[in-house]
Amino acid sequence: MQLAVLGGFVVAGMAPLLHRWFGARTPMLMALLPASLTLWLLWQWPTIIAGNVLLLEWAWVPGLDITLTFLIDGLAWLFAMLISVIGALVLVYSGDYLRGHQDLPRFLVVITAFMMSMLGLVLADNLVTLFVFWELTSITSYLLIGFNHTDLAARKAALQGLIVTAGGGLALLAGFVMLAVAGGSWSLSELITQGEVLREHSLYTALLICVLIGAFTKSAQFPFHFWLPNAMAAPTPVSAYLHSATMVKAGIYLLARLHPALGGTDTWVISLSLVGALTMATGAFLAIQHTHIKKMLAYSTIMALGTLTMLLGIGTQGALVAFVVFLLAHSLYKGALFMVAGILDHATGTKDVTAMGGLRHAMPLTAAAACIAALSLAGLPPLLGFVGKELMFESVLEASHYQGVILILAFIAAFLTLAVAVIVALRPFFGPRRETPKTPHEAPPAMLIAPVLLAELSLLLGLVPALLDGLVAAVVTGISLGEVRGVKLSLWHGINLPLLLSLASLAAGVLVFRYWHALRARLARLEPIMARGPEAGYEALMRGLVNVAEWQTRLLQNGYIRNYLVMTLLVFLGLVGHALVFRHSPNIALSIDVYFHEAVAAGLMVSGAIVACVMRSRLAAVAALGVMGFSIALTFVLFSAPDLAITQLLVETLTVILLVLVLFRSPRFADLSTPVERLRDLVVAVLTGGLTTLLMLAVLNGERLPRISDYMVANSQPLGHGHNIVNVILVDFRALDTLGEMFVLALAAMGVYAMLRFHVVDYDARHPPTPRENTDD
Amino acid sequence: MESLMAIAIGILFAAAIYMMLRRSIVKLVIGLMLLSNAANLLIFVTAGMTRGAPPLVPQGLTAPPGIVADPLPQALVLTAIVISFGVLSFAVVLVRRAWEIVKADDLDKMKDTDT
Question: Is the backbone of residue B6 left (phi > 0), alpha (psi -120 to 50) or beta?
Fold first, then answer.
């Protein structure tokens, strides 16, 4: 399985090559990959249903004990199955949707890479592996939203999605690290048995908040929901696959996976159920305000994601059963509806539902699939969506905290969703025929397979929900906190409170549909309030980021080399000075073991330096520098360094000659700075010099380590056959350093030569040198 | 002697930095020279200063008879002296070329000179 997933990335990379060989048939061919994974998963079905957990270990880096372990239990199986099945269908569908598109190979690369990342995410047992795949899905999602990269809006939406989800990813990483510290393991299969320890741990609140931020951003929960509708800039197969069926459910998957480890506390229950319920109502409310078919579907996806979060928050067995059913139902009908939306877009040339009507004669099969999927979205019998909604109402009535609030929000979401379903799926197909930019026609078979199949599954599982008993029981056992009693699903629950709530929401939903236009007109008045939503906050944040970056670039990188130097020195002074004075309280003692002639040499050195600074004549400054250099050579002589003294004398002589030769043709000294600037520079210079002195005194009086040159002293003659130890070090023990030094000198010499060769008369930036002029010298 | 040298080196550093902060490009070069000398001395002094015991092996012996000055920092400083000369000669020629071309000694003016 690991090989299949990692190999899938290789297949993704090969897509352009395959496309060159097989042309338009490539998507079909590549669909074989998820299709074979589906078969493999089906083969594991008996094991999973029996409640077993498959732990596939594969030594990745055996030397470092890093294993790529996959954990397949009911939850992972369900997600992997959705990813593979819908993945195969989406690939087949996109073959026709993007037929002839020049970037089809790129699309195939990214969507296959996404598919494999998503599989890795839901199957990973190790937190780090999970995180890597999690980020990979964010990146592939970014590439897919921005697929149409010549469109500014698509690029902006892609970046927004990336920033929101990757920002949440950072919080998630912090949460994972704390989780591993608190639970003592990086392995999910071990962490979910550590629930007692984790919930009592002092890091619990912090790690829960971090994990929740990660999950909420990924799954577009309020107030991070705004990126999802914008992500609809992606091609429709992407919206169907990433932004409804799979990627946005990664956060939900993570919450479900960690439910046994972190769930059950008041913090968990209240935050998840309230955020979920709020997201649910917000999504449904925003959905009816739009007429763009994909945006309406996106907002209803937010509604569904909110419902799933809320059910995980409630956390009773009934709620978890409802969670699994609703998850499955949503993936089926929403995938189908998005693909229908893509077909409508292709066939009519518009995405506005108010511009379509009476299409059922032109495209009967599409209409049938759309109706079935929409009825499931609306939660009407006999579809799986109805079973899910009944179970949802039942669990809301079981909620332990804020039951009233959640119930009201759930009811609002239910009837608004019903209205959305009717508008999205029924309006385009029924009623009077409207003129559309293109003449509508039935979609080709490859595009029809996917929505029809998914809609059929909704219907079949709705009629015989008992088919799901085993799977639901296996999933719920894996994610629940306590024992699981028998799970029995059925379409008809008898006349009870949930059914009455359903009926009431049906009536309200029909009313909303009836007066949709009037309602939208009234809601348009809320526009100024809506404009201050979380998306405005995101925009403000991004603007602020850019402003801060500009400000600090102007401050720190202003192009004045002086300012860079001052800044560096100030940081040095602050950090080193602080560490020296406050951390180490250095032991500084002045020794006065000085002979007179030594003091004279040091005095000459210092006066040479100071005179070189204050002289206004260039020649005098050079002479003062010479005095300083020769006194340094004298110091070397006095303190047992004859080689240094010789070198210093030679270099100093050459330097003075060079400076005299060159500086005479250079500008005179000019006084360019103001007195205030001089004072500022003087303060910085004196502080740095003082700190250097302090550091040296501290080092000189500190404890000394044994010197490392004893080996060289002892072996210079026996091994190096030289009597001058310094020379032996240079040409023998550290010969490579000397070789490097020679390279540096050679480079400097070449640079000097090159610059002296070109005369200024040859060069003028506005009139590049002509070959004739260049040859004169 | 090390204490006295520490103070002298501090003054050399201060002088070097003051010169490097000037706007005149020739002063920058002088600052660079002061800085490389100060750094060489710093390495030499921090390793400890020994009077009258150069790291030499007398003829006929395989090792020096008594304690000698540490040869390793001397080798390092020797390399550094030569390299700083290379850097200095390059810098001096660069400054001269720059002055010839842009006719400005002021670093602030050079910043905005695109010629």
Answer: alpha
